[in-house]
Amino acid sequence: MISSLFSNCRNNHQVSNYRKSILKHYKKDLYTNEEIQLCLIKTTEHISICSDEKFVKVLFDYIIKMLKKENHNLRLTALEVVYDLIPQIDKKFRFINN
């Protein structure tokens, strides 16, 4: 559904607005239910990636947080998402602080 939403946007302004709306769910620890966390982590694959570092940082912070979970499904899904998203990220972008 998220893929369809982004692929059918008419302009960049729509994409940006949808991205901001979806991103609100990743910024805070709103959801403690592991099923919801799993849905959120799976959804990250379908969100249109942009060059906005704030946006990418919020997504990757969430993914990294999922990599640290005890639940194996969350960790494995987060690894799959990283594998799929890495080619889309600008090579100059640093999402992990040294």
Description of the molecule:
This protein is mainly alpha-helical. It has one domain (2-88). Helix content is 62%, strand content 0%. It contains 5 helices and no strands. α2 (12-27) runs parallel beside α4, α3 (34-43) runs parallel beside α5 (72-85) and α4 runs antiparallel to α5 (72-85). The longest helix is centred in the first third of the chain and has 16 residues, at 12-27.
First-residue to last-residue Cα separation: 36 Å
Total E-strand runs: 0
The arrangement of helices and strands along the chain is HHHHH
Number of domains: 1
Number of helices: 5
Approximate helicity band: 55-70%
Mean pLDDT, all residues: 81
User: Which geometry do the CA atoms define?
Assistant: globular
The major pleated sheet works out as: none
Low-confidence stretches: none
Class computed from helices, strands and strand pairing: mainly alpha
Radius of gyration: 13 Å
Strand fraction: under 5%
Compose a concise summary of this entry.
By secondary structure, the chain is an all-alpha fold.
Name its key features.
0% strand, mainly alpha, 98 residues, 5 helices, globular
List the helices and strands and how they pair.
Layout: H1 2-7, H2 12-27, H3 34-43, H4 53-67, H5 72-85
